[in-house]
Amino acid sequence: MSGSRLESDVVVVGFGPVGQVATLLLARPGRRVVVLERWPRPYPMPRAVSFDGESGRILAATGIGDRLAEVTEPSRDYVWQNGAGTVLFEVDVSDRGRSGHPDSSAVYQPGLEAALAERAESLPGVTVLRGHEVVALDQAAERVRVVTAGPEPLVVEASWLVACDGANSTVRSALDLPVTDFGYFDDWLTCDVTVHDGRAFEPNNLQVCDPARPRTAVSAGPGHRRWEFLRLPEEDPAEFGTVESAWRLLARFGLDPDNATLDRHAVYTFQARFANDWRSGRVLLAGDAAHLMPPFAGQGMCSGLRDAANLGWKLDLVLRGAAADSLLDSYTVERRAHVQHAIGMSMNLGRVICQTDPKAAADRDTAMAAAAARRRGTPAEPAVTALTRGVVRKDATGLGGVLGPQGTVTRDGVTGLFDEVVGTGFVLLTTLPLDEILDAALRARLTGLDAHLVQVVPRGVEAPGAVQDDDEVYLPLLDEAGAVAALVRPDFYLFGGASDAAGVRALVDDLATHLGSERLSPV
Q: Which candidate in 4, 8, 157, 353 could, as Cys together with 34 as Cys, close a disulfide (CB 3.0–4.6 Å)?
């Protein structure tokens, strides 16, 4: 740092979980990142309390995989009941899902943020400046410039800015970017509690769809619990948010100051909206700066982590000249579609949960109880859909846009999750020997992307350098698609597949076209 001016490849505004993950994924390949966080100290209380398996895989990719067990626990189950205790909906959450992590994990957010911050501090290319609020920004053809207030005002210049500065984003407001607002507003009293009497929670995560008082009781990570209560229309907002109101409502669950500590209580207004454009020149929005949704599908923080994963690899390619900056236009296209689906799902769930009309609630209960009996044992609807536009290839295999799985593999005597054994980044998976599908030129083009070239073989089959599919995840995926190869993006979504050796070259050619990269073009 020299004086009051800094330069970097990327400036990240906001250092909550989304800003932290974006920083780490950019720093991993060597990008210089300056982080500007307006608050001088981390917020000591949780906001999010869960994340899904895909998010677990993204978090592990930042380098904190060995820390996750300290701050998370598998969610185990999720049950909806009506006011009388009748089960309306239930899901047993797999401890090992498609992404190699629990399909849902309860998390203590302050612990997660501490692990991410420690990881950032260990990387030489990262500078984290707390207590520096962005008060102005401007853009030129090649740079973006921000000015901060704080103990020592700074000017920071970077090639790109990623705004992860929350729902009331200063950056989004400064750029006057329009949003689509769905007009969804519900007030909920959130109570974070430490319970001292050693009771077991069965189910571990409970939604009570009671028209007299919709309420929630869930894990908030090891040793922590959360209860939430909907404010009814006739209730005074000021009184509803008091500590007396919190204890009165918690008494429904047998909690009082003698057996529990109320760590925090606050009234939140659940909202639903998204920015119409997530890129403005050299500025990109991520996390709550780009979208808000009710928490009922558990996709708020997850969506922000997907933003960071999607943006990280694209920005890296642009910064090192391996892709045109037009690649970043695909960020809005891909992520906005995902978020629209998650917002719609969250609002629909909220309308069911928040029903306060007794007659409508009774009709709901009858229909849902009957459906629950029929559905028992079937998986829940996924909150994330496949990519249909953007950097995906539409081919006969149908693999383009699908979220890639992660299983246990063995290579050269080492066994573990695929990302741990092989690594992250672009991956070419194939059932054929690499020399049969890659000549020197094609191999060089993939190597230019730092791609991992992986032959997959059945469990127990020895082949030099090949990966054994111990969990029988990868070979069935390719076989069912009629593919001999698939190209996986660094954010774990499949770019596309190839049905024969000749198709692999076409696959790489098409990726080069999407990236706008002359360096990857055929020679």
A: 8
Contacts of 413 (CB under 8 A, 6+ apart): none
CA distance 344 to 347: 5
Would you call 209 helix, strand, or coil by DSSP?
Answer: strand
DSSP percent split of the chain into helix, strand, coil, nearest 5:
35, 30, 40
Distance CA 157, CA 137 (A): 10
Write out pLDDT tens, residues 173-231: 999 999 999 999 999 999 999 999 999 999 999 999 999 999 999 999 999 999 999 99
What is the full DSSP assignment across 449-486? TT-EEEEEEETT---TT-EEETTS-HHHHHHHTT-SEE
Could you give the CA distance from residue 23 to residue 12 in angstroms, rounded to a whole number?
7
- One DSSP character per residue, 390-406 reads SS----TT--TTPBPP-
Per-residue tokens: 5: 């001016």
* 73 within 8 A of 220, measured Cβ to Cβ: no
DSSP β-bridge partners for residue 7:
157
Task: Give the whole-angstrom CA distance, residue 252 versus residue 448.
Answer: 60
**pLDDT (tens digit, 9 = 90+) per residue, 399-430?**
999 999 999 999 999 999 999 999 999 999 99
User: CB of 340 within 8 A of CB of 272?
Assistant: no
Please state whether beta strands 33-37 and 5-13 pair in parallel, antiparallel, or not at all (unpaired): parallel
Residue 70 tokens, joined:
């300290």
- How many alpha carbons lie under 13 Å from residue 135 in its C-beta half-sphere? 10
Separation CA 495–CA 400 (nearest Å): 5
Contact by Cβ (8 Å): 63, 28:
yes
SS (H, E, C) 276-304: CCCEECCEEECHHHCEECCHHHCCHHHHH
* Torsion angle, alpha carbons of 187, 296, 48, 490, to 10: -140
